[in-house]
Amino acid sequence: MVVPSLKLQDLIEEIRGAKTQAQEREVIQKECAHIRASFRDGDPVHRHRQLAKLLYVHMLGYPAHFGQMECLKLIASSRFTDKRVGYLGAMLLLDESDLSQGIQPVQGLALCTLSTMGSAEMCRDLAPEVEKLLLQPSPYVRKKAILTAVHMIRKVPELSSVFLPPCAQLLHERHHGILLGTITLITELCERSPAALRHFRKVVPQLVHILRTLVTMGYSTEHSISGVSDPFLQVQILRLLRILGRNHEESSETMNDLLAQVATNTDTSRNAGNAVLFETVLTIMDIRSAAGLRVLAVNILGRFLLNSDRNIRYVALTSLLRLVQSDHSAVQRHRPTVVECLRETDASLSRRALELSLALVNSSNVRAMMQELQAFLESCPPDLRADCASGILLAAERFAPTKRWHIDTILHVLTTAGTHVRDDAVANLTQLIGGAQELHAYSVRRLYNALAEDISQQPLVQVAAWCIGEYGDLLLAGNCEEIEPLQVDEEEVLALLEKVLQSHMSLPATRGYALTALMKLSTRLCGDNNRIRQVVSIYGSCLDVELQQRAVEYDTLFRKYDHMRAAILEKMPLVERDGPQADEEAKESKEAAQLSEAAPVPTEPQASQLLDLLDLLDGASGDVQHPPHLDPSPGGALVHLLDLPCVPPPPAPIPDLKVFEREGVQLNLSFIRPPENPALLLITITATNFSEGDVTHFICQAAVPKSLQLQLQAPSGNTVPARGGLPITQLFRILNPNKAPLRLKLRLTYDHFHQSVQEIFEVNNLPVESWQ
User: What three-state secondary structure class fits 695?
Assistant: First the structure.
């Protein structure tokens, strides 16, 4: 007996009633066999029902490719029920005549298919038909046509000019779906076409009027959510205003009052109101808004930090992190709330709070912020320890009020999370201690105590071993008044270093530090050196080649060159630290001297000022060498002008360098070394964009080796228009008095094609002329 074919509803019930996956497969296999037989028989009446069942089977993940031809047959049918299922199932064939038919449901189905599956070629061919449908009397067809136009613009941006004229007329619509779709279409046009952006800046007052009506009177009660009038339309209008007001003074001025009204009148007790407020904040920060309005936006984000919803707190932290560079003082007011977010159990929230807390550290709050961050370091998750430790070390390096505080901070980090610190932490601390002569006794006693308590933190052990080897005599003297008295004898110090050498936790590099410390103590201690010589000779047969070589050399020094040992192992000379570690007074005096050098002399004659201008155009930025006083007579001026060609020729220009390229975005470096100050290098970075989409929120940060000094000037903007628009330029001033090889590390962050991009890379192929 042949089992009859099931209806769609019965099939769904039977599949859901299957208790095992095997039963479900059995039901589907039987029904697929009935569907195949029906297709073979060519039953035109029930074909759409069979295909509907097959689509459900496909949604469950089972193969349904044998129904593709049936989809084409249903699309070609004249019955609406067949066409509906055919378009839904296949999305493979689009007949242009369906767009021009007067049957609205058929036009809607064809437009939906085109907006979902339309290729670039189909979009180019059917764009005129869609443009006609944009002005059809039926709101149903116009709404579908607008969504199709959005897809066409995304697929083929050069079709922008086709849809510009109808958009202005569609903005006058009262139909919610048409108005929302029109705002979306204009947004896509402005993001992909500079001409469209200029065209639609004229409708900013109209958009402001629409949004003000939504805020004050409401649009329609059926589209209100939780007391907020049509939040989806408000959000779309705010996004469009953000694009239109970016880098445009007149448009920004037009929308300032409205944004203040939205920011103060929107209800924040519901999620819909928070969404509108967040888009308002983003718009305020992207346009050229008033200073008071920007402070209001930061305060809104500060209130978001107190919200119970974790998602709202996360977007608030992320937004404040973007604003901390441009509105540092306003964000600084919410520092206590940001610090509270460090205690969040959610890892993503605590990570964002950590990044923002580190960005808020400055010279005035460094002590308080370091206490909070060090407390967080002790209890933070393991995956955050490396970032937290690295951030604390960098902040202490930049804003340390005193050298002792700096040393204490680094020691706390090494003690708490020594295995998570950066590779250069050991070298930085030894250099810092070596340059602070007045803190040698304090440092060696602090490190000795820390080493006696824990020898598992390898960076801490390495620094302690180095310090004990250098200043072991100060440790034994016990004349440090800044900490509690501690009586240490020679045997205890040697035993501790031997413990480090024998520990299974010690790395080969750590053992090297300890062995060298023992060797240096042979000239610092007053007792017999036989114990040290025995330890050194033992490691002469060590399996580690580096440690073995060091031990053999030290043993040779004992046996053959003992008369030179004291001179060879004397203390390291004091090290002067550069860059962020220099005293603030020296830094300020240096900046003042540079400003005085760069300042023009107002009492110079006009002709002398002209020659100064020529020097500036040649790139001079150091001491300006003024020519002799010019004779004010015409004859004298002529003589000096004739003498100008006798000036020595300028140095050969340094070639430009392209260091980055991705999806049409390029970064080029150009170099200038002023002849008056060869130690100074001026690097101009130029960011260009040859893609089809604008680059927004562009930020370029740089770092150089510690022997160099870097100063970043403010960039010319943060948006690079598409298709070779006006580029962004930024000036780097690098002082390289020792002519050290130049290396540059760059970090780029920007938004491109609705995606956030971050690139970190190192430039090692800089021209030799830029530093030699």
Answer: strand
Residue 728 pairs with which residues in a beta bridge? 687
Q: What pLDDT digit, counting tens, does each position of 517-527 carry?
A: 999 988 888 77
* Cα three-residue angle 11-17-21, rounded to 5 degrees: 95
- 63's CB contacts (< 8 A; 6+ apart) are none
Angular region, 596: left φ>0, alpha ψ -120 to 50, beta rest:
alpha
User: Does residue 761 contact residue 719 with C-beta atoms inside 8 Å?
Assistant: no
Is there a contact between 264 and 257 (Cβ–Cβ < 8 Å)? no
d(CA 438, CA 454): 26
**Identity of the amino acid at 562:** D
Cα(355)–Cα(358) distance, integer angstroms: 5
The answer to whether residues 99 and 93 touch, using CB atoms and an 8 Å cutoff, is no
Measured in degrees and rounded to the nearest 5, phi and psi for residue 655 equal -65, 145
- Mean pLDDT, residues 148-170: 88
Element (H, E) at 770: none
Asked if residue 581 lies in contact with residue 397, where contact means CB atoms within 8 angstroms, the answer is: yes
* Alpha-carbon gap, residue 518 to 536, rounded angstroms: 8
CA atoms within 13 A on the CB side of 490: 14
Q: How many CB atoms are closer than 10 A to CB 323? A: 19
CA atoms of 446 and 444, how far apart (whole Å): 6
Integer Cα distance of 569 and 459 in angstroms: 23
Residue the block writes with tokens 């044998």:
66
Residue 603: predicted pLDDT: 36
141 burial level (CB within 10 Å; 0-12, 13-18, 19+)? buried
CA distance 263 to 277: 6
Structure confidence at residue 241 as a pLDDT band (50, 70, 90): very high
- The first and second tokens of residue 458, run together, are 């390898």
619-657 pLDDT, tens digit per residue, is 333 343 434 443 444 444 433 433 434 445 556 788 889
Q: How far is CA 598 from CA 35, 344, 585, in A?
A: 86, 49, 20
Residue given tokens 């613009």 in the structure block: 153
Taking each helix axis as running N to C, give the angle between helix 310-323 and helix 347-360, from 0 to 180 degrees, rounded to the nearest 10: 30
Beta bridge partners of 712: 732
